Amino acid sequence: MYVNRITKLIIGIAISIAGLWYAFRGMNFSELIDHLSQTNFSFILLAMGIIVVSVALRAYRWQLMLKPIQTITFNPLFASTMIGYFGNSVLPFRLGELLRAYSISRKESITSSVAFGTIIMEHILDLMGLAAVMIFFAFFSPLMEWSGNVLIGLVALTVGGLGIIIWLGRSHSNFHERVVHWKIFEKSSGQKLLNSIQKIFKGLTSIGRTKHSGQLFLSTLALWVLIYASIILVVLATGININWVAVGIILIATSLAITVPSAPGYVGTYHAVAVYVLVNIYNVGLAESQAFAVLIHAIGFIPLVVIGFFYFLRSSIHISDLKTEEITT
After folding, report:
1. pLDDT in tens, 61-98
2. Sequential DSSP letters for 141-182
3. Is residue 329 part of a domain?
4. Residue 94 phi/psi, 5° resolution?
5. Is residue 43 situated within a structural domain?
6. Rounded distance, CA 161 to CA 174, Å?
7. Which residues of 16-41 are buried (b: 16+ CB within 10 A; e: fewer)?
8. DSSP string for residues in 229-279
9. What is the rounded CA–CA span in Å between residue 24 and residue 274?
10. How many CB atoms within 10 Å of residue 15?
11. Is residue 297 situated within a structural domain?
12. Half-sphere exposure of residue 267: CA atoms within 13 angstroms, side-chain side
């Protein structure tokens, strides 16, 4: 397992290095600095503020998802979400998600396993939101026409998966009784595994017991609108001449880029995709595109790392806690 983690880390770093090489190949440093110096940083600060608001909205959505399990106030959820973003930005293997679950379990009477299950469900909702964004911009951009079958498959997969999860949550509350006698769970180690699976399952299927489906749907759409607005502000800050549809394509492309294995903070992959879209699709100059890539990554990276680090220090959590903490408690 240790070797596998090292291999994954090396692959992620290699991909990030390749992405940075692609994004900044042929870089004219003085020209890049010149474009950055001409940036309207009032728009950049506003974009950072919108990103922070989007995290607050994400914490609110998490609060709604947790209500069928336990009522938790907003502040600890916001702090844990920020800690999770900090973790994803500085730790390998996307450990921020585990850090987020562990953080809320330290503050509230909820296990990290249950919390982690709701975080998995959150990512499914995000995937549905991305599918909706892709469908919307498919009507306006010929670039999206090729992806018709992919879109249909993505929508079918996410909606179908969500439907199954909701059904399981509503009709299979006796999950433990159904599987406890399986041979794999007979030994003590198997019982421990079953306990972990059951708690993750409880968190994952909480959406099937929610009374806030409409709010979950609207908050998910609002999250994507906020991220879109933050990119618009970077466009205004840099003066790049692209239209609102191009902004949507950048949103989709960079959102897909963060799913690719990389070094912490999506360094390299994010920059490479942003530069590729601007240079090869919208004929924006290389230095101008590179400056844009730096800024669009910075508006999400800098505020979340700074605020997340603040909450991390206040939490008294140590990174080493993740070595002893199991998503089985």
Report:
1. 999 999 888 899 999 999 999 999 999 999 888 889 99
2. -GGGGGGHHHHHHHHHHHHHHHHHHHHHHHH-TTHHHHHTTS
3. no
4. 55, 40
5. yes
6. 20
7. beebbeebbeeeeeeebeebbeebee
8. HHHHHHHHHHT----HHHHHHHHHHHHHHTTS--SGGGTTHHHHHHHHIII
9. 11
10. 18
11. yes
12. 16
CA distances from 61 to 30, 67, 327 (A): 44, 10, 22
Domain count, the chain: 1
The Cβ of residue 164 has, within 10 Å, a number of other Cβ atoms equal to 12
Residue 81 buriedness (CB in 10 A; 0-12 / 13-18 / 19+): buried
Q: What is the DSSP letter of 186?
A: S
| Listed residue (113, 121, 136) closest to 144, CA to CA | 136
Q: Nearest Cα to 247, choosing from 278, 212, 207, 272?
A: 278
| Tokens 């290699």 -> residue | 14
Contacts for 302 with CB less than 8 Å, ≥ 6 apart = 48
Residue 85's closest CA among 305, 268, 319? 305
Which residue segment(s) compose the domain that 175 sits in?
Answer: 2-324
Averaged pLDDT of the chain: 85
Angstrom distance (rounded) from CA 176 to CA 197? 9
> What's the CA gap between 239 and 197, in Å, rounded?
50
Instruction: Look at the block and give the residue holding tokens 């919108």.
Output: 50
Predicted confidence band of residue 328 (pLDDT cuts 50, 70, 90)? very low
Report the distance separating Cα 142 and Cα 153, nearest Å.
Answer: 19
Contact assessment for residue 219 and residue 60, using Cβ atoms and an 8 Å cutoff: yes
Is 136 inside any structural domain? Answer: yes
